[in-house]
Amino acid sequence: MNGTIYLVRHATPDWSRTDLRYDIPPGPPLTPAGEEEARKLGEFLRSAGVVKLYASPLDRTARTAELAAAVAALPVVIDEQIAEWRLGEKDAEVLSRCRPCVEAALAESLEAGPIALVTHGGPIRLLLQALGLSQAAVDFYRRQFDRDNPLPPAGVWKLTQQEGALATPEMVFAPQEFKRYVPDPVPDIVYV
User: DSSP secondary structure string, 70-125?
Assistant: First the structure.
């Protein structure tokens, strides 16, 4: 059996709320457009057979999970491990905090079915890099989306584990159109 998890970025928050820090609860809430993105996300999660959602405790992620879960009829568990990158936190600290949740979700998905983690763009970027996505692919996606993130609001990356090995992460959903990364072909070798 395959283990499958989906790394989900929260839907569009109200970034104009400069009175709220982005990295500690509650953080900025979703915009009305963000709430619609979260509902579309729920439709995707239902079609993907997701059985459970974990969400960061910030308002934008918890609300994204709540709205998506309502559409897909899923339980939601709030997990501090996948919270936003905190002010002053180093890459290694973010990874050491998030990685156990990803590994536990992969193990749980082997028994229960696909699991989704609703988190933030920064932690997702670090996880994708740590889980084998090429730097070229990460950079390609970061150039497409807001705030240098490797996926848009309510976007989804799929991670599949089979017989203990992870397949290359794949971006599988966005509420907007996006370009897929295609690696440059290896040039033919010409012998003289």
Answer: HHHT--EEE-GGGPPPPTT--HHHHHHHHHHHHHHHHHHHHHH--EEEEE-HHHHH
d(Cα 157, Cα 112) in Å, to the nearest integer?
A: 19
pTM of the model: 0.93
β-partners of residue 186 are: none
Q: Write out pLDDT tens, residues 123-152.
A: 999 999 999 899 999 999 999 999 999 999
Q: Which two tokens stand for residue 180?
A: 């897929």
